[in-house]
Amino acid sequence: MAMHPAISIQNISKQYGALQALDDVSLAIEPGEFFGLLGPNGAGKTTLISILAGLVRPSHGHAAIMGADVQKGFREARRMLGVVPQELVFDPFFTVRETLRFQSGYFGIRNNDAWIDEIMANLDLTSKADSNMRSLSGGMKRRVLVAQALVHRPPVIILDEPTAGVDVELRQSLWQFISRLNQDGHTIVLTTHYLEEAEALCQRIAMLKQGKIVALDTTANLLSRYGSVKKDGEGK
Ligand code: ATP
């Protein structure tokens, strides 16, 4: 039986009025890959992620997660996908545990506490389990965002700049955690502005610029070609 790509993006375009945010993007990411999506501000990274998460409808084209069409099979596709968004948006009056229970409920999962406890332990959140979200530091909130993406055990995880604005120590521990998820078999897609992060973690990298993929290759090939993977896709 042929295996589906973890993520399949076929001829996706997105227009916002006159603005072409994505322009005929096609891409296949294989199960188990650690994939980097790079590009300058406004390149279309978040738009592409929003389309994969079913939050934004493409003007043209199709996307699928583990073979499930995002448009036609939204529930199935969404179940396969964990998204760590850029913005730290939470109910400030929920505790960490309630936030994770609420997210479990969204996916129709009951009695998820054992798994929630395990996720919190792995992300060093256990001591904050009963703290209100509004009382947490930005770095802790970011950990909760990662935890939230994992409650339904998705095989594919997309992280939109998960280390933006976090200190070096937390960045390192998030890197380790995300690497472990990949070693455990999860497909990981990471968008980042930190080039050393992409170079250190990603097996392949696509560079988006003005809504188009301008480079797509293994990190090793991009490094040997350009010496450094520049986020504007033009090398050194
Ligand atoms: P960043 O690195 O700054 O997060 P990005 O690569 O994620 O950038 P997007 O957020 O996808 O880029 O934005 C792509 C383009 O689409 C930008 O020009 C942005 O202003 C525009 N855009 C995004 N969302 C909307 C919207 N809802 N309405 C109108 N224009 C939008």
Task: Please characterize this protein's 3D structure.
The structure is a single chain. The protein has 236 residues and is α/β, with parallel strands linked by helices. The protein is built from eight helices and ten strands. It has helices at residues 45-52, 74-79, 96-106, 113-122, 138-150, 168-183, 195-201, 219-226; strands at 7-16, 19-29, 34-38, 60-65, 68-69, 81-84, 156-160, 187-191, 204-209, 212-218. It has a six-stranded mixed beta sheet with strand order 6-7-8-3-9-10, with helices on both faces. The protein has a four-stranded antiparallel beta sheet with strand order 2-1-4-5. A hairpin with a 2-residue loop joins strand 4 and strand 5 (68-69). It is globular and about 45 Å long. It starts with 6 loop residues before the first strand and ends in a 10-residue tail after the last helix. Adenosine-5'-triphosphate binds at residues 16, 19, 21, 39, 41-47.
Unreliable residue runs: none
Instruction: Report helical residue fraction.
Output: 25-40%
Beta-strand percent range = 25-35%
Sheet with the most strands: spatial strand order: 6-7-8-3-9-10
> Which series of helices and strands comes N to C?
EEEHEEHEHHHEHEHEEH
How many helices? The count is 8
**DSSP, total strands:** 10
**First-to-last CA distance:** 43 Å
Bound molecules: adenosine-5'-triphosphate
